[in-house]
Amino acid sequence: MEEVTERLSDALQKVAANSGAPGPDGETIAQVRKRWARLEPCLQSALLEGRYQPGEIRRVQIPKPGGGERGLGIPNVVDRVVQEAVRQVLEPLYEPTFHRSSHGFRPGRSCHTALTEAKRHVKAGHAWVVDIDLEKFFDRVNHQRLMARLAERVADRRLLVLIGQMLKAGVVLPDGVVVATDEGVPQGGPLSPLLSNVVLDELDRELVRRGHRFVRYADDMNVFVRSERAGQRVMASLTRFIERRLRLKVNAKKSAVARPEDRHFLGFRLTHGPTEGTVEVRFSERTIRRAKARHRELTPRNWGGSMKGCIARLNVYLRGWFGFFGVVSARERSTLQSFDAHIRRRLRAIQLKHWKRKRTIAMNLIARGVKRKTAWRRVYEGRKSLWPLSHDPAVDRALRNAYFAERGLVSLEGLLDAKLQALAAPAQLSLMLG
């Protein structure tokens, strides 16, 4: 426990860097930092003497991209600091022993490293995937089994008692009702990701014992096999192990044995490339749907701000989105072109809305190079609404792609080209140096 108390100041800095909303007590990070000089010694003594009691956890519901809601637990800021200090103590005990095929919430690993390993398995001929979905994993973790696993390596009983108290902290529901917690690891605290890996490390070890090739990112897990028949056997046996031994629940509706190209894994799907023996990363259908929906949210028809402001907001999202999804194959260029075209069309509709009157629209089209007769006819004929008009050839000509590029709009296709050029540059240099 002494090591935990020594890390409190570092933990506060980490919690502050991650920002976050207040917990049930309403105290902000800024308020905690302001009184930290007085708070830290009191917190240290309370931890050492066993008097520290974690506060309640505020439950908020956030929308899931695929529909429905996910419960997120927000502890008080002080409790987050203590959780972070505990995490810093526990991580060196567990991190070196976690399996290399576990990629979630681990230093030096990410969704991209998980994809790289998955590609290797498919390329090696394991072209069927057992995609196992754990139903409400974070809500179903068995406290008794988790504490038993922790007790195997944590000798300090005070630390074990503290973790047990954190797990059993009351939850304040959105309607103000406080409920007790008998199972689960609330998502939202700094300690939860590490504890989830401690729980699922037992599953990793079982997969290794059976000789399976697998990739796991938190509770997203794929096991790679050579045939559908083998996949069905693995699905049945792993379901029994997970539900009987780990006391978790497999979601049968979302789990499946299938080809990797037919499954959604971390936003991607794996397909065989155009040449034999190659494997490519492509967008999953779910990712494409979510991206289109987000484009619509960021370019509402009733956007009341400036075009510059709308583009600036879009650019933040597009650069971040490509930073994650830009690992896809060059064959996804057509998808990115489609995204770019749809975004520009929605911006054209916003520009037309800003011009308001048909006369103003026609005059602006003329000012941008559209013939006078064509402009008046296109705007007034057929009583077109703004959305059909936004894709009219006259509007496309007046508000060309360059019009938005000059205003700084990021092109996803352009980002892909820049990435491919950067990857090709070392190879070209190597050929030149011969």
What does this structure look like?
With 434 residues, the protein is an alpha+beta fold. 55% of the residues lie in helices and 11% in strands. The protein is built from 20 helices and 10 strands. It has helices at residues 2-6, 8-18, 29-34, 36-49, 77-94, 111-123, 137-140, 143-151, 157-167, 192-209, 228-245, 285-298, 307-325, 333-355, 358-367, 372-380, 386-389, 393-398, 401-406, 412-433, and strands at 57-63, 69-75, 128-133, 171-172, 178-179, 213-217, 220-225, 256-258, 268-272, 279-283. Helix 12 runs parallel beside helix 14 (333-355) and helix 15 runs antiparallel to helix 16. The longest helix is centred in the C-terminal third of the chain and has 23 residues, at 333-355. The radius of gyration is 27 Å and the shape is globular.
* Biggest sheet record: 4 strands, mixed
Give the overall pLDDT as a whole number: 92
- Poorly predicted tracts of residues: none
Helix content: 55-70%
Which structural class do the helices and strands define? Answer: alpha+beta
SSE pattern? HHHHEEHHEHHHEEHEEHEEEHHHHHHHHH
- How many runs of DSSP E, i.e. beta strands? 10
Work out the radius of gyration: 27 Å
